[in-house]
Known about the structure:
Mean pLDDT: 85
Structural class: mainly alpha
Number of strands: 0
CATH architecture of the domain at 91-300: Orthogonal Bundle
Strand content: under 5%
CATH class of the domain at 91-300: Mainly Alpha
Distance between the termini: 54 Å
Number of helices: 13
Amino acid sequence: MTTTTPPSGGATALAxxxxxxxxxxxxxxxxxxxxxxxxxxxxxLIALLALLAPLLVGSDVQNVTDAPGGPLESPSAEFPxxxxxxxxxxxxxxxxxxxxxxxxxxLAAALSVAIGTLVGIVAGHYxxxxxxxxxxxxxxxxxxxxxVLAIVLATVLSHSVWTVILAIGVxxxxxxxxxxxxxxxxxxxxxxxxxxxxxxxxxxxxxxRHVLPGVVPLVLAQTTLGISNAILTxxxxxxxxxxxxxxVSWGGMLQDAREAGAVxxxxxxxxxxxxxxxxxxxxxxxxxxxxxxxxLNPKLGVAK
Length: 304
């Protein structure tokens, strides 16, 4: 009996072809969700404006010593969104603030999901007393209000962007851990896991090569939904004066507006742009997350 040796790189090429086909199927399903497309288009536009901020409004827009306008000017042809108390154009600050708010949201959500995924897979795979201890720790973080915990961490640590990212990520991982553990238990009950163990697959091999691919769809959906929460939390921390005072963010703009008395003096143009921007970005990420969740789990029956 003769055997045919597969060509060199054949397995790799086949794996790449399957991944491309999987991505194509995902995109075809995603395109059928109009709300998800609207959210994705909105995020793409906001991200593009944020990346082009240095070209569109210049890098000196944050300078308080050489501001081009007067304090708290109302919207005009020269300043479409008005100016702040230092005379800086709010449109430029809004574009620069998008860079920080989006970056913090993405990195904080990634950190939160990474911690939750690690804890969930380890707890679901090993089981026993070790899983019980991990879940009790998770429950303690779960019952602790995440915003309160983030405020405590941001207060104790130095005020910087990385502190805000760390505070949000550490405070918001328990929900992901619970979901991933449940999915891990479901994946571990499948026959191919038993075959992998019988063939000598160790714990690391089973968790990384078999369990992790099984929970990735859930992790992806949780990430897209968690970004909007991270952006809202960052804005809250900045509004409370716990953000990085050296950078411009949407929450920081709201804090500056409060300190400038924009609420009592009726300077609505100082409050409205960052508030609306936060709401729109959170809505866009939520729409994308719901669409991703519906594509990866068609049983949800989410309306298109």
